[in-house]
Specification:
- The protein is an alpha/beta fold.
- It has 10 helices and 8 strands.
- Strands 1-2-3-4-5-6-7-8 form an 8-stranded parallel beta barrel, surrounded by 6 helices.
- Helix 3 crosses helix 4.
- It starts with 11 loop residues before the first strand and ends with a helix.
- The protein binds cytidine-5'-monophosphate.
- Cytidine-5'-monophosphate binds next to strand 8 and helix 9.
Length: 236
């Protein structure tokens, strides 16, 4: 998927951070034609969300499975093949070279794109040190982004604050997918490094992942429409 060719409406990925398939289906009904791309993470995936992912993909929606895979290469490859058969568009893996290599090889010939998570945004330098790393966060993010690009990974998940620096490292053929998006005036919740949709696009993000500002809004469809309008205006 070439980042430059994405329609503004398809750049909003709504995170279905909801406890059940019933709740997710009610939200999908409310959003109707407004939203074309949904993200399913641990919470919903482990509560029946994988058949829902397959159903969404069959109905013409795009699906991002945020499963953050990491295992021995053979296990990653077989898992990626199964996810590809669900019809998902994006799948996250942790940015370890063996894992990324196995995932990229296994997705060949399918419509699945592999996204690498470089360093989890909840980690700071002291967390990396405690986990046995010698590099600081920014050096490890840069190292892994370079490895991801050379291994043929299709995209990188990052904070919008890292988007501009990552764009310089990976060029314009790798998708940058950014959570941590907050329309002006909406609650940050537990996100610390946030940007408005317009600023994230201006920083080089290709796709914006938004959950609570849409799924917890009084009118989720109006919230999604407003974010898409802001994205379209920022793209110009
Ligand atoms: O509600 P909110 O818009 O903050 O949700 C952001 C979504 O993106 C959540 O599903 C969260 O798990 C995910 N995410 C994130 N930061 C990352 C990777 C994924 O917020 N680094």
């Amino acid at each position: 998927m070439q980042p430059a060719k994405i329609a503004p409406k398809d750049r909003l990925i709504v995170g279905l951070d909801l406890p059940s398939v019933t709740a997710a289906e009610a939200m999908i009904d409310k959003l109707g034609d407004s939203v074309t791309f949904y993200k399913i993470g641990y919470q919903l995936a482990y509560a029946g969300g994988l058949p829902l992912a397959k159903q969404l993909a069959s109905s013409g929606k795009k699906v991002f499975l945020d499963l953050k895979l990491h295992d021995i290469g053979n296990t990653v490859a077989r898992g990626v093949e199964s996810v590809a058969r669900l019809g998902a568009t994006f799948l996250t893996v942790h940015a370890y070279p063996q894992t990324m290599k196995a995932a990229v090889e296994a997705r060949a010939g399918s419509g699945l794109n592999i996204l690498a998570v470089t360093v989890l945004t909840s980690y700071d330098d002291s967390d990396l040190h405690a986990a046995g790393y010698r590099l600081n966060v920014s050096d490890l993010v840069a190292t892994r982004a370079r490895q991801a690009q050379s291994l043929g990974v299709d995209g990188i998940v990052s904070s919008p604050e890292e988007a501009a620096a990552l764009r310089k490292i990976v060029g314009d053929k790798v998708n940058l997918v950014t959570p941590g998006i907050r329309p002006a005036g909406s609650a940050a919740g537990d996100q610390k490094r946030i940007m408005t949709p317009a600023r994230a696009i201006a920083s080089g993000a290709d796709y914006l992942v938004v959950a609570r500002p849409v799924v917890e809004a009084a009118d989720p469809k109006a919230a999604a429409d407003a974010i898409q309008a802001e994205i379209a205006q920022a793209i110009g």
